[in-house]
Write a structure and sequence with these properties.
The complex is a heterodimer of chains A (405) and B (215). With 405 residues, chain A is an alpha/beta fold. Helix content of chain A is 22%, strand content 36%. In chain A, strands 10, 11, 13, 15, 16, 18 and 19 form a 7-stranded mixed sheet that branches. Chain A has a 6-stranded mixed sheet with strand order 5-6-7-3-8-9, with helices on both faces. Chain A has a 3-stranded antiparallel sheet with strand order 2-1-4, covered by helices on one side. The chains are: A alpha/beta (405), B mainly alpha (215).
């Protein structure tokens, strides 16, 4: 079932040079255009099916919040149309218009009725709202004494008291502590499994990759990328470094993103173990050498080479570069071939990992980015030699057991 | 077409009646929270006004209604006017500011916008009914109950409220774009009050002749 469909949605705000100009436009039929139009959204089209989760990313001012306001019906689009089937619940920014002088319970009633839950139903849901928010006796105290995290807990509990057909969450969850974030994502996952479509705005890569099936990158009010979260986020990260040259190649189901000014290139990435010169599978704890072959395309004063090992969700397991190891290379002349070898033990748990490589002029990839290559190498870690354990990191303990009585 | 739109809005208000009632209750709670006398203030304010006008006009300035000699005649006339002026100006003023006041809700949650004026009308009417009930008690005490004529109040009240909310909402929308509207309306209301035969009998206006009658 299609829950929401946007058709070439655009939004323009009018700006008047002065207050009098607005008055003139209203009163004088000849003065039709006393304003300038600023388009903050243009030509945005997408549709979501039941159970589909969409991550919305983009820099500040890209139009994310305006788009959400249009979908929720708070603002009308200047052009295009939005079709919505079913009940919508939205958690925009902080709070839900809570009144500081009323208690959490009164505000929960107020907000619940505002989003269209009948009073009788709300009374039945109230114990669950109170239980889920877990703010204890604060629930019956005025909201003005709440911390922002507590307000968010209350707002989330009310907004998700009943499973909506479309749930919109705008960065609000980032205010919550790790415990509540985890709890809210669990609830969101349950809703999703039961058929709720989700639109999530977040700057947290992990949040989007762990929950969304799809991501959209908004840039200057238009859809720049629409695809699987990993490739869209990689692309977004690449745009953050402010370079225009971004390439994406798709092979199989994953998309590799490469960006940079091309001052230097990684031409080969190999992981070698004792047995295998170019391994795709590594044993937990095995000593390995990560070898990066780099070709310099331009005369460079300084070159920093770095890598990051990431898990399936794109979280960095470990990353370092030659700036941090005090091994700056340079100056290097055009045409030089370099080999960087990083030796370490693969102290990771079982799973699939990827290597991202970076060649830069300085400490971070934002300053003089020559090349940033996501998913430069994909490999698996298996555990057949060590004791069975869970998690991403191998940190084997010695265990001592003593009897105290 | 017009009628179906009206029906649609009316049913949206009806569907949200719980919310509207709860909001009106909250509004009263909020108004009298942290005050010792609480709801008594609803009565004390207009009472003070009536006492002052009665003292000033009927005792100090010796104002009399032509043709009526009862001791309370002027006070009753004054109350009737002030009570109605009260409900009119309260609703119009509140409606004129309600969109700015509730901006935090309007920007965050999509709910039937018609709830806002409905809340204004509801709380205005309740304030009126509280004072009017008191007024009726006084009328009974001084043995001046007009009897069946009271029924005529219902359509009059209806028209007054309808006019007030319509005017208030129109001004309220303009006020969002030009704050001047709010300030200006405050001034206009002052003139309007004194141009309306509330303190003085309507016959004075006819005597002056050149002044436009508002009632």
């Amino acid at each position: 079932m299609r829950v929401v469909a946007l058709e070439r949605v655009g939004k323009a705000f009018r700006s008047y040079p002065s207050r009098w100009a607005r008055l003139r436009e209203w009163l004088d039929p000849r003065a039709l255009d006393c304003h300038d139009k600023t388009w903050v959204l243009r030509d945005v089209s997408f549709a979501l099916e039941a159970g589909e989760a969409l991550g919305l990313v983009g820099m500040n001012g890209a139009g994310k919040s305006t788009l959400l306001k249009i979908i929720t019906g708070i603002t009308q689009p200047s052009e295009g149309s939005v079709q919505l089937a079913g009940r919508l619940s939205a958690l925009l920014e902080l709070g839900m218009g809570f009144h500081p002088d009323f208690t959490g319970r009164q505000n929960a009633f107020n907000a619940g009725q505002l989003i269209g839950i009948p009073l009788a139903r709300l009374e039945a849901l109230m114990p669950e709202i109170e239980r889920f928010a877990e703010i204890g006796e604060y629930f019956d105290q005025p909201v003005r004494v709440y911390s922002s995290g507590m307000q968010m807990r209350l707002a989330f509990s009310v907004a998700t008291a009943e499973r909506p057909d479309l749930l919109i969450v705008d960065e609000a969850l980032s205010v919550g502590d790790a415990y509540f974030q985890h709890k809210s994502f669990d609830r969101i996952r349950q809703f999703k499994a039961a058929g709720t479509a989700l639109i999530l705005v977040s700057h947290d890569r992990f949040a989007i990759q762990s929950i969304c099936d799809r991501a959209i990158l908004l840039s200057e009010g238009t859809v720049k990328r629409d695809g699987d979260p990993e490739s869209v986020l990689d692309y977004y990260n690449a745009t953050l470094s402010g370079v225009d040259q971004i390439e994406q190649q798709t092979d199989g189901e994953r998309t590799r993103t490469t960006s940079g000014d091309g001052g230097a290139r990684v031409t080969e990435v190999r992981i070698s173990t004792e047995k295998d010169d170019d391994a795709d599978t590594v044993e937990t704890g095995a000593p390995v050498v990560l070898a990066l072959k780099v070709s310099v395309e331009r005369d460079l004063d300084e070159l920093v080479c770095g890598y990051a090992i990431r898990n399936r969700l794109g979280q960095d397991m470990y990353g370092v570069n030659t700036f941090h190891t005090d091994q700056l290379t340079g100056p290097v002349a055009k045409g030089t071939e370099l080999l960087f070898e990083f030796s370490f033990s693969m102290n990771l748990g079982e799973g699939e990992y990827s290597v991202a490589t970076a060649l830069a002029g300085g400490e971070t990839h934002l300053e003089g980015n020559h090349e940033w290559r996501d998913l430069a190498k994909v490999f698996s870690v298996v555990n057949t030699r060590q004791r069975v354990f869970s998690g991403c990191v191998w940190m084997e303990p010695t265990v001592a057991v003593g009897r105290l009585s | 077409m017009r009628l179906s739109m009206f029906k649609q809005h009316a049913s949206a208000v009806y569907a949200n009646r719980d919310f509207i009632f709860a909001s009106i209750r909250r509004e009263f709670e909020l108004k009298y929270r942290n005050s010792l006398l609480g709801a008594l203030w609803t009565v004390l304010n207009p009472l003070a006004m009536i006492v002052i006008y009665t003292l000033v006009f009927s005792k100090i300035m010796q104002a009399r209604l032509p043709g009526l000699e009862g001791a309370y005649a002027y006070s009753i006339y004054l109350c009737a006017g002030i009570l109605f002026w009260g409900v009119f100006s309260e609703i119009a003023l509140r409606a004129q500011g309600v969109f700015l006041e509730q901006a935090h809700l309007l920007k965050k949650i999509n709910f039937p916008r018609l709830c806002l004026p409905a809340i204004v009308v509801g709380s205005g009417l309740i304030n009126f009914l509280i004072i009017f009930a008191l007024f009726l008690v006084v009328l009974v005490l001084v043995d001046a109950l007009p009897g069946m004529k009271l029924l005529a109040l219902i359509p009059v009240l209806g028209i007054t409220v309808w006019f007030a909310i319509a005017l208030g909402v129109v001004l309220g929308i303009l006020n969002v774009f030009f704050r001047d509207v709010g300030h200006f309306f405050g001034v206009v209301l002052q003139f309007w009050f004194w141009l309306t035969p509330i303190i003085y009998p309507a016959s004075i206006l006819r005597r002056i002749g050149s002044v436009t009658t508002f009632f």
